[in-house]
Design goal:
about 500 residues; disordered N terminus; Ectonucleotide pyrophosphatase/phosphodiesterase family member 5-like; single chain; 12 helices; binds zinc ion; alpha/beta; 4-stranded antiparallel β-sheet; 8-stranded mixed β-sheet; about 15% strand
Length: about 500
Amino acid sequence: MHLFIAIIYLLHLSSGHSEKEYSLLLISFDGFRWNYLTETHAEIPTLKKLMESGVYAKDGLKNVFPTNTLPNHWSMVTGLYPESHGVLDNYIKDPNISKPFIPKFIQPDYQNDPRYYDAGGEPIWVTNQFQKSHGRSGSIMWWGSENLVKFMKPTLTMSYEDNILFNEAVDTIVNWFTSEFPINLGLLYFPEPDSTGHKYGPNSVNITKKIEEVDNGLKYLLAKLAEKDLLDDINIIITSDHGMSEITKENFIDLNDIVDPASFEYLGSGNGPYSSLSIFPKEGKLDEVYNQLKSQSESKNYQVFKAEEIPDRFNYKHNKRVPPILALAKPKYSFILGDVTLTIGGNHGYDNEVKDMHPFFIATGPSFKKGFSIDSLNTVDLYPLMCHLLGLHPAPNNGSMKNVSQLLQEGPENTIWTFGTYILVLIVIGSVGGVFTVAACRHHRYLKRRRGPLPATIKYSTPGGAAKAALLSADDDDEFDDANDNTTDDKMLELVTTKW
Ligand SMILES: [Zn+2]
């Protein structure tokens, strides 16, 4: 019995859980393109310091389609593609819900039906609070965290505010990490540099200035964490939802010149510009609207799909919320529906293969390597990575640890202990098997002496049965882990209020 308990204990140690539990802070700066980090005129000493003291992705994150804010933030925290988590876009319509989903940055007072978010995905704060008795999460403006999902919200939340300063958000979350009942998971969303990117374009001096403000905000964060003596105990992931592509008035596609406006409705507010549009033809008008759109798609630089024609690689169409028709502009082009005052600016939401759509990724802290980089990772890999960092078993997801595991320190919890404990387990199993074998042989000889030769029809059970059972449970443990693997003074950062 003692041997059995020892085996179970050793298998538990070998399952990859760290002895030391670190806190985790996930920060998202909306619309921070991957190469704002490396191809910029901005002075970014703090971001460079973070890259040198931690890990980063040279080509950024491969995000999910559509490359918009809400689907990507929900994919970060659930590890699921939009067709699996249901937050298909910034605007959504569900056939079983009477009101469409409208994002808070368009209509702050609008009450969205919580079922739009609670549609199958398990956000990291639910996993954290469900699995850990001391699991406490804090969310500052993270998209979706205001909703009950699986009957839970983050332990502490701050709702979306248009005029919040980054440094104020930092003060709040650092207080949460150091309170009498501290959080072990913090999520911080900030709406810049997206707003500035939309208004002035990604190549503007305004973006350069905004990136310097982001850098200054991070300097403040690190100073606060150092002041509270937290830097050695917290892992920090700093990333974004999507990039930005420059758009100009010359590349606007006015849908009203292509399709009769009386024959369809679309999800959105205002005349645009839109990189993609969910189109709902009026009854009996599906083919007519589709054919009119299709007839000018090549000459006007966009694609149009009926729901079933949407490419599988978008991981988007297998959901009841998919629109009957999806129109998708090519990068630098945008749909409008009437007059728009903008002459030059930025947009996102295009094909997620387009490099300008990819966001940046930096991570630092005791669990990460120092001065290490990889080419790219997937947005859906963040959930299993965060679960690993927090010692949680991930809910089923579309991400993988395969690519991200190389970012981690080869600490005791990742390799040596695991290998050593497996060896120990094998030694224990071998010993148990050996004892059984010797005992069986002795018993066999004893019986032989007493009874003479056995009749040919009687067979002994395999002496190594117990060892075999223990090895099977070790294999089962491996399979479980594998299944789970698959499965952002005067420069203070503030928000430019013009956005869409
Ligand atoms: Zn945006």
